Structure formats: structure tokens, C-alpha cells
Amino acid sequence: MLISMYICLCCCSFLVYFPECLLFIVLSQMPHIVNCVIRISKQSIHLSKLNSLSDRIFSLTFDVISRVLETGPGWRLVSPHFSSLMDSAIFPALALNEKDIAEWEEDTDEYMRKNLPSELDDISGWAEDLFTARKSAINLLGVLALSKGPPVVSAASKRKKGDKSKGKGGSCIGELLVIPFLSKFPVPSHGEDASSKAVQNYFGVLMAYGGLQDFLSERKDLAVTLIRNRILPLYYLDPCSPYLISTANWIIGQLTLCLPEAMCTDIYNSLMKALSMEDAEDVTCYPVRASASGAIAELIENGYAPPDWVALLQVVVKRISAEDENESALLFQLLGTIVDAGQEKVAAHIPGTVSNIANTITNLLPSVPDPWPQVVEQGFAALVAMVQAWDSPAPDENKEHEKSAWQLGQTAIAQTFSTVLQKAWLLPVEQMEPTLDSALPPPSCVNDASVLLEFILRSITSMEEITHMKVFELVVIWADIIAYWDSWEEEEDQGVFNAIKEAVSFHQRFDSSGFFLKMLPSQSANGSQSSVISRVSSFVTRAIAAYPSATWRACSCIHTLLHAPDFSLGAEDTRMTLAVTFGEATFSYFKGVSDSPAGIWKPLLLAISSCYICYPDAIQQVLCKDDGNGYTAWASALAQVSSSSFTPGLSSESEIKLAILTLATVIERLLALSMGGTKVLQDCYISLMESCIHLKDVQEDGDDDDGDGAEDLDDDDDEEDTDDDDEVMYHRTVFSIFSLSTLLEDREHAIRIRRMMMCEKRQKRNSLQDMLLLLASQSRLLRKET
User: What is the mean pLDDT of each run of 10 residues along the chain (786 residues)?
Assistant: First the structure.
């Protein structure tokens, strides 16, 4: 027997992993192989007594039958055996056995992986890597239930062209065989335990229903009937069998999309009962609570609103503890789902909830600088969900009482977050042995932790709070962590970029001593000294070439880092160093994508523009360092991006102003280099005209399009300097137009522009609107000349 099983293992493996050879085998040896695998599959009644290798053999036999059923000849070979397969092979593999009960107690996670699988969303004859006999049997049952016969057309159906009742409307095996077979097993009676044959068989019935997800989703009335008559009664048995309830929870999670709204309340109440099920004296109910947690999350994600959000929140928070990390990790996920969906209905309870789960997270944080366990990562994700829910219903400024209460909650949450981050970041550094190369805490949950830090920074209202929450200390260690962070593919980073912008805003509001610009010792392995701004800039520099979305976000941060901090505090050299570093990184990346115009050009070229406006000479040297034509190549590309025909074009007012100021500066530089007749100068001039007209349209419409999210430059960063920037932009633009008009020997326009410049000195401020007709005519003149 063992020899034949091992021979079959080789044949089965060949069929499973090389399905392209199936047609050849069908023509010769398929009948023999089918008979062999069916005989082996019918030995599944002994599955609980066999080892893992034998279990794998049974898994492969079921997989082979599933694949054979996907072919016409194979279906005809297997179809005579459908009834015996159900009774003697598939169902015995699904029924509860002694091995299941032992595994439930000894390794609940392994039990759930095998028996409450999440990867059965796609029932198919070509499924791979199921590995266990039970999963493969479930998959085979799903394939069997959906089958209607071999894919052939009979001669009779060819003659009856008007008869459409066959084929599409015919009954499938699920209706003819599977459901009637499963209906033979009644719901267990009160008082029956796992040793009862009725409970063991009904466990197999529930596992079978779970495998019929695709079949039942096409027959929602049948699914509702089965849940009402065959599943919900299990929750009212006395006592409830945990083995049955956990599987019932799993099925409900699988069939959420089939549930009518009128039935959801009964199902939700049953799941809440399961979520609150306590361990018995000799049986753990963790799989029951875990599967109930997943099913409730599925209900909520599919639009069900619990009748009492607060009661659900309290039940979940009460069960989260440091004693059972696996269960707490699942409950943290459910908590995040509840808060995401509940929003304003749970917002008032968020400060208390944050405090409760933060205590659990701090107790679960490792005392040594090791990567954080999964439960801590899930806890941080839940805290981030609470930040988002808390921010969404912020009261209006004119509602003073509500605003005051909300501000108290905001401060309480920020204080809690500070305590968590101190335990996560500061305490490990303080306890680090001096002999270690690096004293940095582990780079775990960097994005989520950055969201919490951002919340703290924008919640600060006084210097006393800064001291109490150790804000400066947290910012220093955070900047040190992200300076060496390099997990672009494994973790999100939007929270890090948001925290960078909020840190710069915090620096403007509270850092009067220039702490962010001071040289501080690093906790990294090299131990070098650097400023907070420099460490943050290191992260941004590496993000430029990470992946496209990170490029957009990094380029947006470049403008913030160059123009928002107060570099007048004896740190102008730092600013120049940053500009050169950013310029080198962005231009290097641009050269790699410069072969043909692309959307990624826009953030890269505008970032270089931000650097160039600060230090034109230094950035020009950067652009020409490896290629003498680098400066003109960048200028030409900038003119192309700034033109009205480029997609995605300049959209926000800040982008357009930056382009106008840069183009005007470039035109001055090109004229100084005696490049008046070149095409790049002409392109820059035309784009300058079009950008000025575009700016006027944007200002008149009041439509500062922020559709690109992180891609647009932040208008808020420069609100205080708008007047000064407009004046600089005006004078540079007018000078460039005047110079070009003179170059083109257009005396009439040159005289008009000179008069406008003199008028501008008297009026102090001009928004360029009076020049737009002149700009349009100059644009037409230049096109004619070229």
C-alpha cells in the first residue's frame, strides 16, 4: 500500500506542477491514474492516524482530481464516482478527528491555519500550495459543486437552436448532489460534545459549506437558508461546541457578501456572543474569538453598522491584554476596523480607548532593541486609525465649548502618544550598553510612529507642553531613525513625509533657539554629529530615487526644507549644503528618465528649481558637473514642463509661481551667457508667457487644484512671504521680457515695459495682470521670429 501511495505521489506531483502535460496523459494513462487516485482518496477515513507525508499524499490526490475535473475527458472519467467520492473520500477528510482536537489545544495558530483558511477565496482546479488534505478536499468540493458536465455540445442541442434551457440553465452538481448529501446530517442536539459522532460529522458539514463560497454566492437565497437553518442554531446550543462555533464564524466571514441586511443583526448578535466566549476549564476558546473577530470585521467592512458602536468598542478593548499576544494582535485589527467605520460615533471615546490600549502596547514593547513583535505593530496601526478618526470630526472654531472639550482630548491623546514613543525610542537608548556599535532603537513601525509624532507636534500649544512631552528629544531620535531607514518596499512612508512637514512647521512656531539646526551627536554606528534638518534631509534625498510616489513626496518636501526653516540663525552654510545635495540627487534621477517626457519630470524639475532659486551659481555647477550641457538640458525640460501642452501640467498657484520665477532667472542667465538666439531661450520665453497667463486664470478662478496630493508644493509654507515672493517674481519677469524685447529689436514693447517698471516702483506691488495682453503679443512675436 505504501509503495503504491509513493508512486502515486510522484504521478500526482507531475500532474499538479506540469498541467501542460495533462492532455497527453489523458489520451493514454488517465483512466488508470484516476482509478488510482480515487482508491487512495477513499483511505482518507484513516487520515487522523497518518503522518504529515501521508497527509500530503492525500492532498495531492484531491488536487489531481480537481484538475482532471477541469477537462472534458477527465470529467467523464470521474463523474461515475461522484457519490462515492463524497461519501468515502471528501467528507471523511472534513470531519472532526482526534488530531484536530489535540492540535486545537497544543497549537491553536496551526489549527486555524489548517482549518479556518483565508486563502480559499479562489476555488479552482488549478489551485496550488494547499498542502493539507482538508484544504485540498474543500477545494475539490468547491470545484465539484460548480461543475455542470463536460464542455461539449450534443447533436440534439445543435438541432434545437431555439432551445436555451440546457447548459446555462441546467442544474450543477452542487444542487444535485452536494447540498442533498450535506443535508443528511442534522444539527447536533443540546449537550453533545466533541466525542459525539453528530458533532464530528457536523464539523465536516460546516467545513464543506465554507468550500462552497463561490457556489453559494451565485445562489444567495440558498446561502441565506443555510445560515438561518443550519448555522445560527449552533449559537444557541447548551453548551456551545467551540469546534463548531469557530467554524460557523469562519463560514459567516466567507459568505458576508451573500447576507441580506435584515439578517445581519441576528448574525452580529451571534458573533458578539462568540467574541465574548470564555475559555472552559480544559478547552481554550481562542479560535472561537479569533474567527468571530474576523467575521465581525468582514460585516463592518461590507457596510453593516452595529446598533451600539460603543458597546462593541468596549468589548474589544476589554479583551485586549498583554497576556495573549496572538489574540490581542487580532483584536487590534478589529479595533482599527471599528474606528475606521465608526468615525464620529466613537470619536468621543477615543481618548480613553487610546489610554487603555497604549498601556498594553507599552507592556508588550521589548526591553531590548529587537524588532517589535507583530502584536505591537498591530497596536500602532490601531493607534493610527484612532488618529484619523479623531481628526475627522474636529468641531468648528465658533463652537467654543465643543472646541475646548476637543482640545482637552487632543492634549490627552498627544500625552499618551508621547509616553508610548518615549518607551519605544528613548528608554532603549538610555538602557543601551555603551559597547554596542549602534544605540538606535529598532526601525519598527517607522511610518505609524511618525503619524503619532506628527499628531504630537501639531497638538503642542505651549513651551510647557514641549518640555513635559519631551518633544525635542523625540524629534532628535526620530530624525536619527529615518536618516538610516531603507524599507521602501516593506512599509508605507506617507506618515514620515507628513511628519517632516509638521516638524518644519513646529520649528517655525516654537524653535526660537534654532535647536533643529544645531549639530547633535548621532546614536548611529558612526556616531557623527549632524542637525535634525540634515538627518531629515538624508531621508528625503534617498527617497527621491526610491519609487515614483516617494519621488513626488520627497520633491514636495525639498521646497519645504529649503524655504521654511529659519536659516538666518548662523546656518546658511547648512542650507546651501542641502540645496546642493538635493540638486545632485534630483538631477541624477532626472538624467535617468530624461529620454522621453514623463509625468515624473514635473516634481524633479520643480525641486531643482527650488534649489536653483536659492543658489543659482552653485546649482548651475551641479548641473554642469558631469555634462557641460546639463544646465541647458534642465532649462529646456523645465520650459517643456511649464508649457500648456505638458501633462501633468502645473496645477497649483505655488507651482506656477515657482516656474515663473525660475524661468525668468534662467532667461537672465542665458542672456548673460550670450545665448540670445538659442532655441532653449526661446522655449523658456514662450513658457514664461504661458505660465503668466495660466497664473492669472488660476487666481481669477480661485481654483488652486490640489488633485495631485503630495505632488503639489505646499502653499501654506510660504503664506507669510507671498508679497515678497510676488515682488521678486514680478521684477525678474519684467526684466526678462524687457531684455528679450530689446534683443528682438521691438522698441515699442521695450518702451512700454520700461514704463511699467517705473510705474511699479511707485505702486509698490503689481500682480502682473496688466501685463498679460503684452505677454500674449510678445509670445506671438517670438513664435513668428523663430
Answer: 51 51 51 60 56 71 82 79 85 90 90 77 49 85 84 43 44 89 93 88 94 90 94 91 95 90 93 92 90 95 93 93 87 95 90 94 85 93 94 73 86 96 88 64 92 97 95 95 88 94 93 86 76 94 94 95 75 88 96 91 96 94 89 95 90 91 89 78 87 84 51 48 53 52 46 48 45 48 46
* Alpha carbon distance 210, 730 (integer Å): 70
Q: How far, in whole angstroms, is CA 116 from its chain's centroid?
A: 25
Query: With contact defined as beta carbons under 8 Å apart, do 665 and 619 qualify?
Result: no
Side-chain half-sphere CA neighbours of 18 within 13 A: 8
Task: From residue 609, give the alpha-carbon distance in Å to each of 175, 414, 532, 560, 713.
Answer: 68, 37, 24, 13, 12
Residue 743 one-letter amino acid: L
Task: For residue 136, give every residue at least 6 positions away whose Cβ sits within 8 Å of its Cβ, in sequence order, or none.
Answer: 58, 59, 60, 61, 62, 63, 66, 130
Residue 758 lies in a domain: no
* Chosen domain end from 517, 532, 566: 566
Q: Which residues contact 480 (CB under 8 A, 6 or more apart)?
A: 440, 522, 523, 524, 535
**CB under 8 Å to 715, separation ≥6 — which residues?**
652, 653, 654, 704
Residue 305 confidence (pLDDT): 93
Q: Alpha carbon 142 to chain centroid distance? A: 31
**Domain's final residue, options 537, 566, 595:** 566
Total of domains in the chain: 2
Contact predicate 439/523, CB 8 Å:
yes
604 in a domain, yes or no? no
Q: In which domain, by residue range, is 553 found?
A: 394-566
